[in-house]
Amino acid sequence: MTIRTDQNGEKLDLALEGRLDTTTAPELDQAIKSALDSITDLTLDLEKLEYLSSAGLRVLLAAQKAMNKQGVMTVKNVSENIMEIFEITGFSEILTIV
Amino acid sequence: MNELTIEATVENITAVTEFVNEQLEAYDCPPKAKMQIDIAIDELFGNIAQYAYDPDTGPATVRVEVEEAPLAVIITFIDHGKPYDPLSRKDPDVTLPVEERDLGGLGVFLVKKTMDEISYEYRNGQNILRIRKTMREAGKNI
């Protein structure tokens, strides 16, 4: 997986490409945690994400919990197949998907 | 039928995924089913890698069988680690609000929801977990 980071003041955009799974989820967790302190607006762009497994969902949940305390988190460009994963697991109710 | 026996480690999830995908290459597997199979491998082989032999490691065998008409794949994961039936666990409550969410069991739940069948047995000192996914029925992709 590659993560493209674009930080502008308190706004952080992360564009994910590839697979967010057991092997790669720690990379995203690290990328979010290391930048999160000063962030009030976090956007995750999933346009080029091939899939995500529960390891990826775990990182998204942790990020959502953290952002609930300090700002907003938005998830964008969710493909139909990934949307189905969010729906099955109830994440479509937890995340703000645009 | 083809099988791969490999050390059950997180690093080897990719090798297992590639092995399974190679077996399916000739069948023009629809993208959505392929994604769901890849996720199932990550969840199930990942669980073996992280828990079956913990704190040591050990081998696992992944067997792939393809059936035609309807096109379906059966993947069997075999390890001889600690006896553990992942299906014995209660499904997580996916309607809880974010602060109350606990993600334990979500991976196996996802596999149950996206595969057509999942079964477990413990036999001859081995955990045997089998999933089945129909990929195409009456010419229609699933």
Describe the structure.
The complex is a heterodimer of chains A (about 100) and B (about 140). By secondary structure, chain A is α/β, with parallel strands linked by helices. Chain A has a single domain, classed as Transcription Regulator spoIIAA, CATH 3.30.750. Helices cover about 40% and strands about 35% of the residues of chain A. Chain A contains 4 helices and 4 strands; from the N terminus they run ββαβαβαα. A 4-stranded mixed sheet of chain A has the order 1-2-3-4. In chain A, α1 links the parallel β2 (about 10-20) and β3. In chain A, α1 runs parallel beside α2. The longest helix of chain A has 17 residues, at about 55-70. The mean pLDDT of chain A is about 95. Chain B is an alpha+beta fold and about 140 residues long. Chain B has one domain: 2-Layer Sandwich (Heat Shock Protein 90). Chain B is about 30% helix and about 30% strand. Chain B has helices at about 15-25, 30-50, 105-115, and strands at about 1-5, 60-65, 70-80, 115-125, 125-135, 140. In chain B, strands 1, 2, 3, 4, 5 and 6 form a 6-stranded antiparallel sheet that branches. The chains are: A alpha/beta (about 100), B alpha+beta (about 140).
What's the short version?
Chain A is α/β, with parallel strands linked by helices and 98 residues long.
